[in-house]
Structures are given as C-alpha cells and as structure tokens.
Amino acid sequence: MSSVELNHANLLSSDSQRTQYPYVTGTSVVALKYKDGILMASDMGGSYGSTLRYKSVERIKPIGKHSLLGASGEISDFQELMRTLDELVLYDNMWDDGNSLGPKEVHNYLTRVMYNRRNKFNPLWNSLVLGGVKNGQKYLGTVSMIGVHFEDNHVATGFGNHLARPILREEWHENLSFEDGVKILEKCMRVLLYRDRSAINKLQIAKITDEGVTISQPYSLKTFWGFSAFLNPTAGAEGSW
C-alpha cells in the first residue's frame, strides 16, 4: 500500500472513530409555540463522557433573521453545523433579492444534511430543534442524527423526549402567553434537572417572534431536594443493599 493510500485509510479510520465515540455532549432541548412565536430552553452543561466538564456551553443559536436552532449531542458537530449554516445564510444574503431563508427552509436543509451524513456512515451526532417565525407564521420542528424529522406544537430532544413531553402534552395550548410558556419550560427543565444526570442548574430560554430573537442571560432555577424519594432512591428496589 502506498503512503497516499495509507494516509487515506487512516483518515477513514479516524472518521469512523470520531463518529462512534462523541466526546463532549449536551443534553435536552425543549421548545414550544406560544401565541406570539417560539420559546426554546436548554441548560448549559457539556459532559466529557459522564463527567460534567463544561458549565457555560451555549446550545441555542439564531440562524438568519427568522430562525432559532437548539442542539443536543456532540458540541463540535453542532459547531460544524453552525459553520455550514452561517455560510448558507451568507450565500442567501449575497443574492440581495429581498428574500431570506425561513424556518421551514432551514429545517428542510438540516434534514438533508443529517440524512446525507447518515448515509455516509459518518453522522453528525446531534438531535436538533428548529423554530422560527416568518410573515406571522410560526414553525417548530426537530430532526434526529439519522434524518428523522417532524413538526409539532412542542418538541424535545434527549431525556426531554421522555420526561418533558408528557408535561407539554398536558399543559400546552395555542394561546399560551409568554409568561405561561416560560413557566412550562422551567417546569420541564426542573424535572430534567432532578432526573437527568447530565443536566445542570444553569439554563437559557430563547424566544423568537416577528420582531427578532432574544436569548436570556444564564440563570438557575429554585429547587428542592428534600423529597423522600431523593433521600434513599434505592429503597424498595429489588436486590438493593
């Protein structure tokens, strides 16, 4: 095997290794529609394996004029996606035709990118939430690391898909005010903090309306750890010590 072929084989091998073993990951993103737009929440933890190594990772970013993107999973893959999307938005702006990419177009683009990488057996290790408002139309969707995608009135990734969605199904309605929407998201994030080992009590909530994007400063939730189930979590478990 020539040196060129050997280098190529090594590159393919390293791609495979990076794909199979994500390093620094973020946990759940939760989002919902409210009467004026979209609300999205995530914490700011970055886990190095099972160690909560980073405490100030921003996982919600604006995309162009009309969209907001949140990501779970590998942080470096999210950064690569952001680089790709920045190029896409810049290219769109260079046409200078008065039009701009809306959330539906960005969501469709992300779906094709994720599915394309999946077909190369080198997926981007992320679950994404894309929300936005354009011309008064609210849009909220999600796409997985293998390109599975859908739209809904509320979505969640990671552990949130199991623990936050029941809360959202029960409490969400079309005419949610901003304040009520934030309360629901905080309730979801509090439940995730209690139950998800990768979650931390430092979060951001972002909103997007026709007026633009606002991302809150990081803040923490009030919590209570005196529940009896927390004092002895293995009580009653079969085979517990």
How does this model look, in words?
It is found in: Cytoplasm; Nucleus. Keywords: Cytoplasm, Nucleus, Proteasome. InterPro entries: Ntn_hydrolases_N, Proteasome_alpha, Proteasome_beta4, Proteasome_bsu_CS, Proteasome_sua/b, Proteasome_suB-type. By secondary structure, the chain is an alpha+beta fold. The chain has one domain: Glutamine Phosphoribosylpyrophosphate, subunit 1, domain 1, CATH 3.60.20.10. The protein has helices at 3-20, 75-94, 103-119, 160-163, 165-171, 178-195, 228-231; strands at 24-26, 29-34, 37-43, 46-48, 51-54, 60-63, 67-74, 126-134, 137-143, 149-151, 154-156, 203-209, 212-215. Helix 5 (165-171) packs antiparallel against helix 6 (178-195). The termini are far apart. 37% of the residues are buried.
Outline the fold blueprint.
Elements lengths: L2 H18 L3 E3 L2 E6 L2 E7 L2 E3 L2 E4 L5 E4 L3 E8 H20 L8 H17 L6 E9 L2 E7 L5 E3 L2 E3 L3 H4 L1 H7 L6 H18 L7 E7 L2 E4 L12 H4 L10
Antiparallel strand pairs: 1-4, 1-7, 2-3, 2-11, 3-12, 4-5, 6-7, 7-8, 8-9, 9-10, 12-13
Helix pairs in contact: 5-6
Function: Non-catalytic component of the proteasome.
Family: Belongs to the peptidase T1B family.
InterPro entries: Ntn_hydrolases_N, Proteasome_alpha, Proteasome_beta4, Proteasome_bsu_CS, Proteasome_sua/b, Proteasome_suB-type
